[in-house]
């Protein structure tokens, strides 16, 4: 979903309670009235959702199902080649459809016996504290709209493909969800905005854009790489740096393009040790101490 630090379009409410999504002039759907109407309708649907109820059913069009299918088909072999084992295991247990967009409510039902995670629909920006805090309750704030059909390979804007194909397959594996929960607990433990930002940057460079070594090959475990047929072909050529919490938590990044700096773990177990271990006991004080000795990296 939209976290601060991710690309998002502002959303406003009209007098009748309907929401309007303000796509920027550089958005691929800006000049497509049909697409804009869909975005407004899905934002309004999410806005009317009440906590404790299943996510609303989004009535997707055939064109939207087709975008899902194009991306899902492109990702079949790319995942086999470049996704880490733990992601592929999650993908096998979840068994997402290829030919149509599943509803968030359905995916939540499929996740229930696997890890207990569930999707909550978001109309627009979910504040950092709420997005991450909900992870501690096994709830994942999620967009419901689909990327514009002109940009199937990459979008800077999280969409249902990113949330469900990228994150959903990880939310199906208890080794991943243990990490999501620790990130959520860490976000609730820290008080200062600086510490929360640090926690979220570590999340960005791991659960969103993390890579690891597996039998001598570079594989992706981050949902942002694994939902983009374009970026999944490009990540191996990026500037690959050793996993380091202090560096990840202070690294400056550009959300609108492929990530050119990535942090590699020696194994999934090292992510659990180093990143899970950090989230498990970080505090405002421990993060302030790291910040005091680490300059920001541009
Ligand atoms: N770039 C991703 C994609 O095209 O699937 C979506 C996002 C991941 C992280 C932030 S936006
Ligand atoms: Fe994400």
From TrEMBL:
InterPro entries: ArAA_hydroxylase (IPR001273), ArAA_hydroxylase_sf (IPR036951), Aro-AA_hydroxylase_C_sf (IPR036329), Aromatic-AA_hydroxylase_C (IPR019774)
Chain ranges of the Biopterin-dependent aromatic amino acid hydroxylase family profile domain: 1-298
Pfam families assigned: Biopterin_H (PF00351)
Keywords of this entry: Iron, Metal-binding, Monooxygenase, Oxidoreductase
PROSITE patterns recorded: BH4_AAA_HYDROXYL_2 (PS51410)
Protein name: Phenylalanine 4-monooxygenase
Recorded GO MF terms: iron ion binding; phenylalanine 4-monooxygenase activity
Amino acids binding Fe cation: 162, 167, 208
Cross-referenced NCBIfam families: PRK11913.1-2
SUPFAM superfamilies, alphabetized: Aromatic aminoacid monoxygenases, catalytic and oligomerization domains
Recorded family membership: Belongs to the biopterin-dependent aromatic amino acid hydroxylase family.
Enzyme Commission number(s): 1.14.16.1
Cofactor: Fe(2+)
